[in-house]
Each structure stands twice: as C-alpha cells, then as structure tokens.
Design brief:
675 residues; alpha/beta; 6-stranded mixed β-sheet; 21 helices
Amino acid sequence: MTAKPKPFPLFLGIDTGGTYTDAVLWSESGSPRGRVLAKAKALTTRHDLAVGISGAVDAVLQNAGTNPAAIKLVSMSTTLATNALVEGQGGRVALVMIGFSEGDLARDGLKAALGTDPVVFCPGGHDVHGNAAKLDLSGLEAALPELGASVSGFAVCAYFATRNPAHELAARDLIREKTGLPVTASHELSAKLGGPRRALTTLLNARLISMIDRLVAATEGFLGQRRIAAPLMVVRGDGALVSAAFARQRPIETILSGPAASLVGARHMTGLDNAVVSDIGGTTTDVAVLDGGRPRLDPEGATVGGFRTMVEAVAMRTFGLGGDSEVALGDGALNPKILLGPRRLVPLALAGMMHGEAVTVELERQLRAPNPGRMDGRLAVRTGVPERLAAGLTGAEAKLYEMIGSTPLAVDRLLTSNAQNATLNRLVSRGLVHVAGFTPSDAAHVLGKQANWDAASARLGAELFARKRDGRGQAIAASPEAISERVLIALTRPSAEVILETAFAEDGLDGAATVAHALVQRAVDAHPGIARLSVALDRPVIGLGASAPLHYAGLAELVGNDCVVPEDTDVANALGAIVGQVRVSAEARVSQPTEGLFRVASGESVRDFKDEAAAIAAAETDVRAIAAGRARDAGTDSAEIEVASEFRVSTVEGQRMFIEAHVVAVASGRPRIAA
C-alpha cells in the first residue's frame, strides 16, 4: 500500500498597511516559487487592529477552505511604523540624555524630531575607550513622577554608550522601577558612534513601541481565537524575519518593514534579479533597487520622514505620495498646480462608506453655499485609540479633542480661527484624529476606475474641489470628472519623478539632488530647449500595490523601460513576509586605551586583555554567542553564523601599531515552524 505523500506546510502572510490589511495563504507546492492558495483584503482599523486583521485572514481561510490548524507559520509585515514617521505620529515620550548638552539637540535633526516632548539631561557618560565620567541621576529621579504620568515611554542615550553601556543600564533600571513604562536604551539598537543620531533612533523607537505592541497583541489575540498555534514573525526593515517578541522591543527596526517585504515579494513573483521596485500604497510610494536578486541596503541607515536613523534597512526612498494623499492647490499662480501629499487623508469615499449621511449631508451643505470655502470637503473624526495615549495635551488641544467625536464633523464647523487649524494638525500628528478629504482614491471612484467605497461621497468631494478658484477668480475645473482626471495625471507624473530620482541617488548623484530633480522634471515633461533631455532606466520597473495597475499604466514611457505589474501585486508585501529568512547580527569593538591594554566592548560587557590575539578571540567568541542567542530570540533554531573582523592599524618606524578592531557576527536561518 502506497503511503500518502506528506502535505506541504501552509504559511499565512499578513501585511497591515495604512489603508488596507492584506492576507495571503501560500504553500511551497505547485511550482518552483510555490503557490498562492488564496488572498484577501480588509480595511485597516487603526482604533482596533484586530478587526482589520480578522477580516482579511477570515476571508483567506474561507476562500481556501483551509483548516486553521494546518498553518505552520504566520509572518507579518507592516507599514504602520513607516507611515507614523512620515506623518509625524507616535506616542509622547521622554528623552534622557546622559553626558550630553543642550547644544547636541541641534545635531542630526534631533531637536526637530523631539518637538514638544520632554528631555532630561544628566551628568555622566563615557569616553571613547569606555572610561566613565561621574553619573548623577538625581535630576532624572526627581522628574520621574511627573513624566511617568504624561508619557508613554522613555528613550535613554548616554555618551559613548556603545563603548560602555553601564550608565544607560542604570538609568533604564531606575525608570522601570519608578514608572513601569517601556524604556529603550540606545546601545540596544546600534553599535555605531554618533550620539545625537543614536539618540534620534532611540527616541523614534520609544515612540513606536505602543503602536507595534498593539499590532502584535491584536494579531496574537486573533490567532489564538482561531486556534492557529503557529509562531508569529515580523519583517524587519532589511527584509529579514524576527519573532514578534523581538519586534516588540525594537519596533524602530520595522520601519520600512512593508517596503522590504514588498522587495522580497517582487523578486519572488517575477524572478527578476535586477529591477527598480516601486510600491504605491495609500500613504507612501516606496522605491528601491534589486541588484543580483537582493535589495540594496543603506549603509548610512534608513531615512524616513526626513530623519536619518541608524537602522540598517533596504536603501529605500519613501515619498509621501499615494492613493490617499492629500490633494491641495498651489498658491499664488494664475493656473495653480495640483499638489499631492505628503499627508494622508481618509478618502471621502471611505468616510462615506463608513459613516453614510454624516459625511454626505455636510458635503451637500457646503456645495449649496454660493462661494467655495477654504475648509470645504474636510471632516475630522477621532481615530479611536486608547484614551491614555491622549496624555499630555495642552489646554487648546484638549478642548478641541473633546469637540471631535466618533462621527465625522465638518472642519468649517469645528474651527473658528486659523490658530485652531495648527491645533488640529497637532492632534492628527499624535494619531488621535483623522482628517477626511479629497484624494486620488476619490478621483478614481469618480471616474469609475475604483469601486470599493462610496462613489457618491467621492463625487461630492470632487465637485467641491473643482469649484476652487484660480488666480483669475475662475473655477479650476468644469466638472468633477475634469478635476479627477487632473488629479490622477498629477499622481503618475511624480511617480515617474521619484523613481528616476531614486535611480540618480543610487548612481551617486544624491548630493546634487536639486540639479537632478530639475533635469528629471525637464526630461519627464519632454521640455523643449536648446539642450534636449531624455532619461531611461537600465532595468525594468516592478510596480507593486493594489492601485499600481491604475496609476502605473502610463509609467513605462516616462521612465524609458518596461513596467511589470505582477498578478499578485496587490498582496506583494504579505507574500514577501512569508518567504524571507531570519537574519540578526552582533558587534564588538576592541580598542587600545593604553599601550599593551586591549579593551573588548561587546553586548553589555567591557573586559580588558593584555594580549591582542586573546582580545580578538574573546570578541569573536562573544559576538558568536550573542548572535546565536539573538537568532533564537528572533525565531530560528538552525542559524548559520559567519564572523568577520576588520582592523585599523598604522605603521610607525616599521612597526605595526594596533588602533582598533571591529568584529561582526551574522546569524541567518529559516524561521522555526509549528510541529
């Protein structure tokens, strides 16, 4: 009797984006690249992420007719962290700077990132060799009762903590003991020098913890309800997989998670080794390059929302351009341009589907007015996040927040002064309030190119926008259809521009960004002139995202190469989340503070040796052990570890002089799956 072949394990991929949550069920069987058994989408529900997750996953399970117990691995990518940084959102946190001065806030964009969040300076820190200055945490301890009641977490950064983390550990332990709130220490995230940028990375990590924690908790809760007893993995910004517990502690590493997963998915779906990948979502367009089948990584750290972090991630350029981008009108021109983004709005079509007459009644009222209003077509609604995240509001913010409820309220009824508009924007940046308005998604509904939400609300929004005035006092468009056509064209053209600008940057021309941008614009416009310009990519574009077939239909002629839109482009992120590998690293530094003394800084330990070879051997042993432990924590039991050492030496009178060594261990392997 012939034994039945063992069934292939099933893998569930989830991508929680700014607008949609995608799910895909995949099996290794069927073809060399496996087989998508089912896919589905549901609206991302930011107030309760479990609702959107359950909607997408339940639909996939139903479509595939699969027993949930057959799923052996669940993997998730998310654009929530990326979108939060692009939109300036995140929890209110306190930054603790040890050994730094106020002047250091002016470096690397730290002051801009900090905004109105509190900062505490404490004496202490170390020098480049790990020797300690005197630590004084009394000021921090005195501030903790008030801070503990007004922030969602803490970020701690000490001077040269990468060479000795002792002072960060002391501050971290004190904060946890007195407040019980999450604390991120900078040495946990990066071993690189550059205190202010490391502080920036730590600050952003602390802001994102509550958001990623809610996402993981919602997903784990849903999986438990459906009796899916499989490990949960999360995609990092470099495309690697890590366990959910790992991601909870280091959410900053999930910035560009969704885009990184899309690169893995793009390579998997098309088989193309060399391509430019452009993923258009609701909030952002993310552009990156595939070389030899692998995404290029950014050696300087990921830049998102204008902030250069120390997070190793794909060399991705993220632009505030998407289907849900805010549509605005340029000022001060006879023929004003259509401007898009970078802020995301809730499309009026989506708001109309969710709230019905509460939206259409207000839009119709505004249309009946004899003249267009500056705030026409805008509504405000609470996001529904837990009330504790509204801690620390100013009096004006709290008053306005109380006026906004779970039913959309027209902004022209809500605001009575221009100053209140800035207050509303601060509530939006805190993630407490959504603003609904006219977007490219609405334009697509007006033209019948998208039909998943309420087209009537979209049309009302288009009518309101079309009657805005140009520099002559005339309406900018004759009809809702006319303005909608202009909006969609306005999205395709900058899509080509950001793809070409990314190509210029990858060719080393990022430093001449202004010139490159001007040249790209002239080439895309086929601008007539004495110097005629044309530009073309050396590789095809892979267009990803549910709206890619719509917005990238005319892209090929603008970029001078093919544009490939794969069959499962709408779930590329979710698919990419499944087929990746766990990859983690550990670093150690060996320095020579005095002649004949070799100091090893690895993990949270600092040790001295009298022999260089012994110090290097100890560093290699340390990083191998740390990498192995991190690999287990990140979700693999079969990691392969590679160790590499880089030396800085000089020659004085023919003698070799040791300066420093950098030792790195990289552990990689497939994630563990359920038995």
